[in-house]
Write a structure and sequence with these properties.
The complex is a heterodimer of chains A (294) and B (348). With 294 residues, chain A is α/β, with parallel strands linked by helices. Chain A has helices at 43-50, 72-75, 91-99, 108-114, 130-142, 160-175, 187-193, 211-218, 256-265, 280-288, and strands spanning 5-14, 17-27, 32-36, 58-63, 66-67, 76-79, 148-152, 179-184, 196-201, 204-209, 222-227, 241-245, 248-253, 274-276. In chain A, a hairpin with a 2-residue loop joins strand 9 and strand 10 (204-209). Chain B has two domains: 3-42 and 150-343, no CATH class; 50-131, no CATH class. Classes of the chains: A alpha/beta (294), B mainly alpha (348). Chains A and B meet through helix 3 of A and helix 1 and helix 7 of B.
Chain lengths: 294, 348
Amino acid sequence: MSYLLEIKNLVKKYKEVVAVDDISFSIRQGICFGLIGPNGAGKTTTIEMVEDIIPPTSGEILYKGKPRSSLFKQEVGIQFQQTNLLSSLTLRETLNTFRSLYNDPADIEEIIDICNLRDIQKRMNDRISGGQKQRLMLALAMINKPELLFLDEPSTGLDPQARRNLWSIVQKIKERGNTIILTTHYMEEAQRLCDEIAIMDNGRIIALGTPDQLIKEHCEGVTVILPRNSIKIPLSSLPFRFREINGRIEIRTNDINSCLNKLLSENADLTEMVVRSPNLENVFLNLTGKQLRE
Amino acid sequence: MSFKRLWAMLHARNLEFFRDRSALGWNFLFPFLVIAGFGIIFGGKDYSEYKVGVFPSQSEIVSMKEIDLPSGFKETRLIKFIGFISFEDGAERLKHHKIDFLVKAGSPSHEYWVSDTSPKGYIVEKLFKASLFPENKNIAEKMEIKGSEIRYIDWLFPGILAMNMMFSALWGVGYVVVRYRKTGVLKRLNATPLTAFEYLSAQILSRIFILMFTLAAVWIGCSFFFTFRVEGSYFDLFLIFLTGSVCLSAYGLVIAARGTSEEFTSGVVNFITWPMMFLSEVWFSLEGSPRWVKLIANLFPLTHMLSAVRKVMNDGARLADVTTELTVLILMTALSIAVGAALFSWNK
């Protein structure tokens, strides 16, 4: 199988600190690949080495089967986690300035429409909200019709509405067939946007696969959550693994049918019952024993 | 090397400069105010160099007809006499160097007080003592300098313009690029095909355009209020200012090469600009200064630019007469660009 990007034994050391510790992965054309993990896991360092912003200590990065050439920057689009822009320019002028830096730029009107910037295109780029700025950054990353798009924590710091708005734009970009590498510590974002995921912790990749594969492989069953007072019998008589948290009972089970039948037979009130499927957060918890946001 | 990319960066930087109204206004207003201020101070008849306290006097304004002082001293130009009611009032001012000299009016023994640490006081003391003896016109023969006199404003004007260029170049290139590095703008640009050479060339060209534009605007603005004499060619002056602005912008490039701390960069720029301002003969001549001071002054591009500009403006020199200054400026430019480009980093 041919890959758009191949990362082999990548290492980044800062004096005594090993930020990225011998990681390898490959990315197929047209997919959205997610690097997920807590803050400090090494996601941004990894992505910036692949973007050719910082040099690796060792390892190999192949783009279209070859080491990256000067053409690499013509063919990739990058959205950094935190960055500023040239001041005193309007959004449209900023887009035009960046457009001039590429040999084969995109149509500016198309990019403005994809990223919902039409209404604010004449506004100064330092007079826009956080969500608008992220959309502008995404537009800049798209300005050269990139084959490969890097999005580093694109929705960090956004309110839920702005975040969902950004996700729908990324979905549209995915549908155009662009290959995307995305880092995030939002599991919902990863689960919603990514086709393949590498989970990172302490500079290493601890799991790799599709979201469904990872969940299936590293999590079992579902969690049934009930208010404590909905069960009339003594809890010790329940034939399940459970725990009591903040007035609620959380039951872990691999057989949801038997569990519900037992609860009904004991006249439990299921009105406020919630059944939660495992997610990537549980995968991370099971792999490392800690929460992603710790 | 892509001219399209270079032009995009140059255009963006120029837009940024011209849209920042406060910085733009200050760039034009500052040199104009300095020139206007000095023109008024040195061109006016009320200008005085020395302040002499006189007591007893009922008012601060001394009536020169009524006050009893040696006539030769009273008639000395550039001295301003300030009246005090009592000795105590005058002595207090003398102690704090608010006046240079204190004298008692009508004193038969010509009593005076002066601070031994005051250079101006020393000069006034000499003048005072000389005025007590009758003037012997045969001791020294006064000769006239042939040709037209170079007024102080004609000497100072190019200095102020060059100084403004220096501040604008070092802050406009050095400080701005460091700020862009700190805020991540450079990192964003590094993610594009833009090369360091293209980016830095755009910064320097943009600054040269801004410097020359400001120079022309201030010159034209000042010429509405003052008359400047230019003995040489305006074209030669333009070329010298252009070479100087390239050199000063390249100096800014060295400051811009590394670092992300605006405070540190501000310190470095001040460390360079202040000695350059005082030792490049912007305000006063270094004639008679120690050799080491002149050696340091020769390290500054401003010294060579000003020397060439004044030769053309005040003495009517041609380009051939200022080849030494131009050669030094070109060599300094080449060295600064080489060092700046070698040290330049996009990242923090």
